[in-house]
Amino acid sequence: MRINRVERIRALIKNAAIPPVSSRFKVFIVDECHLLQGETWATILNSLENLSQHVVFVTVTPHLDKLPRSVVTHSQKYHFPKIKDADIAVKLKNICIEEGIDFDQVALDFIAAKSNGSLRDAEMMLDQMSLLGKRITMSLAYELVRVVSDDELLDLLDLVLSSDTSNTVIRARELMRSRIDPIQIVS
C-alpha cells in the first residue's frame, strides 16, 4: 500500500489494529519515509502508542537527518552496509537468466559498479536496458549511465594531441550533446 496521505495512514493503522492471522507480527514497511509530511508522522506517532505489540513498522530512508526528531528517538536504527559489486553482479546475472535476457557479463559488472552498492538501483538500470529488447552490452550500459567509453576518450585524446582544435571542439560538443556530463570527460 502506498502511503503519503494522512487518510491512507489512518486506514493502514486501522488495518494494523487487527491481529495477524498466520504470523506472530504484522509488519509494515514504509520505504523512502523521509518523504512523509509532518502531519503524517504525527498520525503515525500518536497511533503507535495505541497499537498492540504484534505491529512492527519498518521505516527505510537514506536520510535519517530528514526525519522528525520525535520519530528518530522512538525508533531502533539499523545501518546496512552497501552490497558488494560482485554480489550485485551475481544477482543481475540470475535475473537475466530467469528472464531470458541476453547479456555480456562485463556489462553487468559495470552496472553493479555504477550502482554504488544499491541493488535496487542496479536492478532499475538493468530493467531500463532490458526494455529496449536488446542484448545488455557495454555500449548500452555506457549510453544508459551516460559515461564516455574508453574508446571515445582515446579518440578525443588523439584529436587533442593532434592539435586539430576544430575537430576536437566538434567531437567534445558531440559527446556533451549526447547527455554526457562534461566532468566525465575530464575525469
TrEMBL record:
UniProt xrefs under InterPro entries: DNA_Rep/Repair_Clamp_Loader, HLD_clamp_pol_III_gamma_tau, P-loop_NTPase
Any one Gene Ontology cellular component term annotated for this protein: DNA replication factor C complex
Name all DNA polymerase III subunit gamma/tau helical lid domain ranges: 88-128
Per the UniProt record, which residue ranges are transmembrane? none
Keywords on record? ATP-binding, Metal-binding, Nucleotide-binding, Zinc
Q: Which GO terms describe its biological process?
A: DNA repair; DNA-templated DNA replication
Q: Which GO terms describe its molecular function?
A: ATP binding; metal ion binding
User: Which Pfam families does its entry note?
Assistant: DNA_pol3_delta2, DNAX_ATPase_lid
Source superkingdom: Eukaryota
Family, according to the entry, reads as follows:
Belongs to the DnaX/STICHEL family.
Name assigned to this protein: Replication factor C / DNA polymerase III gamma-tau subunit, putative
Which organism's genome codes for this protein? Ricinus communis
